[in-house]
Amino acid sequence: MLDELHTLVSQAVSSMTHSQSTCSEAVGAANSITESLSSVTGAVEAINDMTSQIATAATEQSSVTDEINRNMVAIQDIVTDLIHSSSSSEQVVSELNHAGTELKQLVGQFKTS
């Protein structure tokens, strides 16, 4: 009977030792998972920061693009005005040329003595 009790106690101690070993392995695995999750959390935070920076840059680029578009429209308006002014200037020059020709003919009619 004592031998049987001794055997059962030995088996219980062996089971407890095995359980303790298994628990230690589980704790180690849990610690490893915690470290991995911390790394993943850090990576997600870094990605969120980069996403925010990209969004800010995209907004700034959009503002710059809008400003460029406004400037291009203003330049186009100026060029259109210059074309109209050039056409008007061309007409004035033509009229002055014609008036100069007439004046030359009129002056040519006078004789100097």
Order of helices and strands, N to C? Answer: H
Poorly predicted ranges? none
What is the tally of helical segments? 1
What is the general shape?
rod-shaped
* Count of extended strands: 0
Radius of gyration: 48 Å
What composes the largest sheet?
Answer: none
Kindly state the mean pLDDT as a whole number? 91
Query: What proportion of the residues is helical, as a percent range?
Result: over 70%
Structural class: mainly alpha
In whole angstroms, the N-to-C terminal distance is 166 Å
Strand content: under 5%
Keywords:
single chain, about 110 residues, mainly alpha, 1 helix, about 95% helix
3D structure, described in words:
The chain has 113 residues and is mainly α. The protein has one helix and no strands. The longest helix is centred in the middle third of the chain and has 108 residues. The termini are far apart. The relative contact order is 0.03.
